[in-house]
Amino acid sequence: MVNIYLVRHGKTMFNTIGRAQGWSDTPLTAAGEQGIIELGLGFKEKGIKFDRAYSSDSGRTIQTMGFILANSDNEGIPYTYDKRIREWCFGSFDGGYDGELFDGVLPRIFTETGNHHTDEFPPDEVIANAIFEVDTAGWAEPWEKLSGRIMDGFTDIAKESEAKGAKNIVIVSHGMTIGTFVKLAHPELPRPHGLDNGSVTHLSFEDGKFTIGKVGDMSYREIGSEKLAKK
Known about the structure:
Layout: E1 2-8, H1 13-17, H2 30-45, E2 52-55, H3 59-71, E3 79-81, H4 98-113, H5 124-134, H6 143-163, E4 168-173, H7 175-185, E5 200-206, E6 209-212, H8 219-229
Parallel strand pairs: 1-4, 2-3, 2-4
Antiparallel strand pairs: 1-5, 5-6
Organism: Lactococcus lactis
GO cellular component, one term: cytoplasm
EC number: 5.4.2.11, 5.4.2.12
């Protein structure tokens, strides 16, 4: 069985000012770096040794992984980038304000297409296809492509780790991508929303199946924060 520690990257400039990051990228802020240092120290304090590391190929996840490995005494382990576990692409809305996209454009599209949703969070499929329809750059992915690459990416990572005999692996990905993956892996579970930067979602993989544990766990960061406060 492979134990998976799935981390949302540290807080970035765009996260801080409420912009949709997607495939665009900004670096971690000083506070974002601090949060991931706390996470790494929390892993170290709990004695967690990783056999392999994976992240998307976005700068913010690579930067996050560097802080995790350095502060948890896990440097030097095999580390692979996988572009399939990138964030959703918002196309021409990448870099735009979250409110403009999620509170302005998308509700209008739902109304125009007859997809009326009173829920605070419509299904991912509806959101993805709406973004695809209004993206003037032609970069956004329809739901079938988006969901396929996310599920394939995480599944292949888990299978590779299992084949290599890994017991514990760490993956750094993105908020919406992690939420989508959890829902795809276990459709009966609620779709996670609002995952904190530096949070950990626990999973295991065995016999081709994912099991979801605690989602959005902040305990490692809390342990690391306490550790720093004592210095």
